[in-house]
Inverse folding.
């Protein structure tokens, strides 16, 4: 899938605020208030159930964020949205800086060692306290490679669809 067709998970609806349809949201953008800059939102409450929402307004409230959606006017409508993931189109996000990548852009890349041994494809990434980790699967096995540029990740070629890593294929 091309970057233009990809969606990026940027948050989740986690609760209710008040009785007029306001929602508590969790944002994974930096800074977190920026989630309101990326619209429309695509809400997914269950697999195959998606709703596009435009014109969402929001603000910080306490330690979190609250959002108001134009067509959600009461607590019952809002309650039906709790647990929905918030996605935006990849092209809405600003371009990453030099040697920075959105995880969604790395997913699907072919991963090879510096010696040219194919390890599989990037299925996803996850964060640890020390560094991000690339999960590489080849159908038979799964490898976890630290996403540390220069040490383990030697190069990333998004247009060529390839990541070169300094990694023992037996590990």
């Amino acid at each position: 899938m091309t970057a233009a067709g990809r969606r990026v998970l940027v948050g989740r609806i986690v609760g209710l605020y008040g009785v007029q349809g306001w929602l508590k949201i969790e944002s994974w953008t930096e800074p977190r208030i920026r989630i309101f800059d990326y619209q429309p939102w695509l809400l997914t409450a269950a697999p195959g159930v998606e709703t596009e929402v435009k014109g969402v307004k929001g603000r910080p409230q306490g330690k979190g964020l609250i959002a108001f959606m134009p067509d959600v006017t009461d607590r019952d409508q809002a309650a039906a949205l709790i647990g929905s993931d918030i996605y935006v189109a990849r092209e809405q996000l600003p371009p990453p800086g030099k040697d920075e990548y959105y995880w969604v852009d790395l997913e699907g890349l072919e991963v090879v060692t510096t010696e040219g041994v194919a390890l599989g494809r990037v299925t996803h990434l996850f964060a640890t306290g020390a560094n991000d980790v690339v999960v590489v699967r080849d159908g038979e096995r799964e490898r976890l490679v630290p996403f540390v540029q220069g040490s383990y990740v030697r190069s990333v070629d998004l247009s060529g669809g390839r990541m070169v890593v300094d990694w023992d294929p037996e590990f």
In short: The helical segments are 75-79, 103-106.
